[in-house]
């Protein structure tokens, strides 16, 4: 009887051990670390240490005076640029030469040249200390409004560009569907 109990215990321990190792191997195979949960609260206040950029190359020093709303908008812009860049790379992998329109060229210039310059100017203005504080506050408010207008403009241009890409892809599917339907026997 004790032999049967011993075999039962060894079998149970072996089953639990192998089950645990198999469960961990499954998690490792799909890239999940057991016991580690990463949750990102999108409503939590943004800090420069938590902001990461996928496409935009912005100097964090120039972002420290921005309000949270503008940081969030910059993140949205970065995500939209990432979507656009992913689309461009997919075209290249399909050996399709992406055609750069004037609109795309201007947007590229705004994102990678003008936006960093404007953020640097805003940062410098925000850090100027003068004796006429009320005049400075007026200039800072105007600068903030101008920066917001620029960010809105860039985001609207990106939205139009992404909408245009979606429309082109949908049109390509419609053409292919029409072609297939017209050759249906």
Describe the secondary-structure layout:
Layout lengths: L1 H29 L29 H4 L4 H26 L8 H25 L6 H50 L3
Helix pairs in contact: 3-5, 4-5
Short description:
The protein has 185 residues and is mostly helical. It contains 5 helices and no strands.
Structure commentary:
It is a single chain. This protein is mainly alpha-helical and 185 residues long. Helices cover 72% and strands 0% of the residues. It has five helices and no strands. The protein has helices at residues 2-30, 60-63, 68-93, 102-126, 133-182. Helix 3 packs parallel to helix 5 and helix 4 (102-126) runs antiparallel to helix 5 (133-182). The model has no long low-confidence stretch (mean pLDDT 83).
Average the pLDDT over all residues and give the rounded result: 83
Separate helix tally: 5
The proportion of residues forming helix, as a percent range, comes to over 70%
Largest sheet: none
* End-to-end distance: 75 Å
Total strand segments: 0
Structural class: mainly alpha
One letter per element, helices H and strands E, the order comes to HHHHH
Spans of 5+ residues with little confidence (pLDDT < 50)?
A: none
Shape: flat
- Percent range for β-strand residues: under 5%
- State Rg: 27 Å
């Amino acid at each position: 009887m004790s032999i049967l109990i011993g075999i039962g215990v060894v079998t149970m321990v072996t089953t639990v051990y192998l089950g645990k190792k198999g469960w961990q191997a499954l998690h490792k195979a799909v890239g999940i670390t057991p016991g580690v949960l990463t949750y990102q609260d999108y409503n939590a206040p943004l800090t420069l240490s938590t902001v990461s950029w996928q496409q935009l190359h912005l100097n964090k020093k120039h972002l420290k005076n921005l309000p949270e709303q503008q940081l969030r908008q910059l993140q949205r812009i970065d995500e939209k640029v990432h979507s656009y860049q992913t689309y461009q790379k997919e075209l290249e992998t399909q050996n399709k030469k992406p055609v750069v329109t004037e609109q795309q060229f201007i947007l590229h210039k705004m994102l990678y040249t003008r936006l960093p310059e404007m953020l640097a100017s805003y940062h410098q203005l925000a850090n100027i200390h003068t004796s006429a504080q009320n005049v400075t506050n007026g200039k800072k408010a105007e600068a903030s409004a101008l920066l917001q207008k620029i960010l809105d403009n860039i985001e609207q241009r990106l939205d139009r560009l992404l909408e245009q890409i979606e429309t082109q892809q949908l049109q390509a599917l419609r053409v292919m569907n029409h072609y297939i339907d017209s050759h249906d026997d």
